[in-house]
Amino acid sequence: SPRSSSPLSGSGNLPIMCERCREVCRGEVVRVKNTHFHVHCFTCHVCSCDLVHSGFFHHSGEYICTEDYQRLYGTQCDSCEQYITGEVVSALGRTYHPHCFHKITNLLLFIQLFILLSVCSQKSIPDWRQSDLLWEKVRMSAVLALSETRQAC
């Protein structure tokens, strides 16, 4: 159409230039932070994937897809090893998703109970060692909690 072949103009009727290729924009453009791109020029600086239909980050003057940004600059959860977006919990120099941290604290409680039962059973305190079934229940709970912390968030 005649409209798509006409150069687009910005303020002062100056032609709009593509930030990536520095050529005059015609037809559809992408506008990000007062800069313009041809649709086909708005790509990831790292992998060249299309950014028009996906999320992206702006880092050091470059536009980067979410996957590359996380791989290069993101923070991984020390429990599930997935990248963290949103809220984080930091403890003892480690970083977690809030729900992964909750699983770890539950695991620590099970471990403490397991140790307590172990110590008490060695001292032959009858109240703590009512049956082997109780012992097995605590052990299986600890194993289950540990396996949950290793699953992906």
From TrEMBL:
Family annotation (CDD domains): LIM1_abLIM
GO biological process, one term: lamellipodium assembly
Single GO MF annotation: metal ion binding
SUPFAM superfamilies in the record: Glucocorticoid receptor-like (DNA-binding domain) (SSF57716)
LIM zinc-binding domain ranges (all copies): 16-75
Key words of the record: LIM domain, Metal-binding, Zinc
The keyword Lipid metabolism appears for this protein: no
Stored PROSITE patterns: LIM_DOMAIN_1 (PS00478), LIM_DOMAIN_2 (PS50023)
Domain of life per record: Eukaryota
Identification of the protein by name: LIM zinc-binding domain-containing protein
Organism from which the protein derives: Kryptolebias marmoratus
